[in-house]
Amino acid sequence: MPTFSQYLQQHSQQHGIAPELTSTVESIVAACVEISRNVRLGALSGVLGEAGTGNIQGEAQKKLDVIANQILMDTLRKNPNVAGLASEEEDDFVAAAESGGYLVLFDPLDGSSNIDVNISIGTIFSVLKKPQGSLHAESFLQKGSEQVAAGYVLYGVQTLLVLTFKHGVNVFTLNHDNEWVETQSSMSIPAQTAEFAINMSNQRHWEAPVQRYIGELLAGKDGVRGKNYNMRWVASMVAEVHRILTRGGVFLYPKDNRDPSKAGKLRLMYEANPLGLVVEQVGGKITNARENMLDIRPTGLHQRVAVVLGSAEEVELVRQYHAE
């Protein structure tokens, strides 16, 4: 099985990927190896529990949130190809190498509410080309379709890297020598599924199209869909997406009526866009329930969106219900 370095060399030659881009991705992946070490040690290194601080969204930070964010910041700022960084845990973007050609956006530790109970969490990342001119917040506000690389690292039973340069998706497993080894080079999400993931405790707050859709799934074989569906819910988006990439399914985190001013809960730039690119690369779909996620022009670094992703048939049905 090829190592990550061997894959990068072959893949970049085959698809004409700039060495500056592969270097940027290598730095992201190297940082994730260090994050994995901290996650693995857990209570042995005193990294569990609350940090006593909050991020720009007003969410309480875990100690590992802060540690993972700092590891990525420190590692990427040393790379001369990285012009700027944006993190879910930072109020604003952070400038890096003035002559760099790439921007990196990331959620340093997705699903951090699960840290202390030892459920899978992950790092999500997105790479964009830096536009011409000086660096400012608008430099980062590019459509998801403009990403040049994206992926995630899942810290679970194994530590896995899932990566795309927009030429398919490859999966790597971290071995006992802290070396990434390619373990899967061909993935696809089946168009049909009988499995869905949603937080049912919010049902009373959903908009009518989502109420209709989930009601049909719950009706099972006796309903209009004519088959039984199983529900899964991990409360870690990166883990939900990886399950869907592995065996199909649909994931929903819809807009609800608790705060009509918010378009959704998940972050467009740090979660929806990078995971959306991965999902589309393996034949799935992602939408905010009304339009293709990767076609949305961002208006802010911390913009929130509703998310529906996974098997194409289910995602398209949810979109149709919202269009009626």
Automatic annotation (TrEMBL):
Keywords per UniProt: Carbohydrate metabolism, Cytoplasm, Hydrolase, Magnesium, Metal-binding
InterPro entries in alphabetical order: FBPase_C_dom (IPR044015), FBPase_class-1 (IPR000146), FBPase_N (IPR033391), FBPtase (IPR028343)
Alphabetized SUPFAM superfamilies for the sequence: Carbohydrate phosphatase
Catalytic activity: beta-D-fructose 1,6-bisphosphate + H2O = beta-D-fructose 6-phosphate + phosphate
Main location: cytoplasm
Binding site for Mg(2+) 1: E88, D107, L109
GO cellular component, as recorded: cytosol
Co-factor requirement: Mg(2+)
Residues binding substrate: D110, G111, S112, S113, N199, K265
GO molecular function, one term: magnesium ion binding
Localization (cell): Cytoplasm
Domain Fructose-1-6-bisphosphatase class I N-terminal intervals: 9-181
Note accompanying the cofactor annotation: Binds 2 magnesium ions per subunit.
Keyword Iron-sulfur: no
Top EC class for this record: hydrolase
Any one Gene Ontology BP term: fructose 6-phosphate metabolic process
Pfam families, alphabetized: FBPase (PF00316), FBPase_C (PF18913)
Chain ranges of the Fructose-1-6-bisphosphatase class 1 C-terminal domain: 189-322
Family: Belongs to the FBPase class 1 family.
HAMAP family reported in the protein's UniProt record: FBPase_class1 (MF_01855)
Protein name per the record: Fructose-1,6-bisphosphatase class 1
Protein species of origin: Kingella denitrificans ATCC 33394
Lineage per the UniProt record: Bacteria, Pseudomonadati, Pseudomonadota, Betaproteobacteria, Neisseriales
